[in-house]
Amino acid sequence: MRHENTKTLFAYWDARRLGRSAPTRGDIAPRDLAGLLSHLFILRRMDRDHHIFRLAGTSLCQMHAREFKDQNFLGLWRGHDRQHMTALLEGAMSVPAPACALADAASLDGRSVEVEIALLPLRGPEGWVDRCLGLYQPLQGRSLDGRPAVRHILKELRPAVEPESSVQVFKGLREGRVPARAANDG
Predict the structure, then answer these.
(1) Got the DSSP string for 163-174?
(2) Record's InterPro entries (predicted)?
């Protein structure tokens, strides 16, 4: 996670999960994330190949010069990049744990901007991990000068790794554990 907004969102998600593997959609309060809203999105998994935008921030929509509601997130990716992004998203939801990617968002005239994409799993009302809170964060540097991003090229994937529990009840016990010994040990 390179950008401060990505770190802020991860810390918020981690605090809201309260020791569970993932928070519920209801645990996420938009007012808590006011500074990030324009870069946030929420996806709902319909099946492996369809992760539909339920919400998309204004910055994300403006950068692509289109609305994303009810569009497939995976439609932003082509070829092998789409397969890799599908695996990254499915992995984040199955572990469940956060995942990240770095990509270049490119315009038709070849300009590009590096973006960091964070994917944080959420539980829906049925208790299943079927949603994903995401952040689409342009990194500093180049710009598209108002031209819409029309394609993405993946540069780096950071797959989901199960995070440590935010509740550390037994942590001290594990660290101070004395190895078991038998009566005839020397």
Answers:
(1) PPPS--TTHHHH
(2) DUF1457
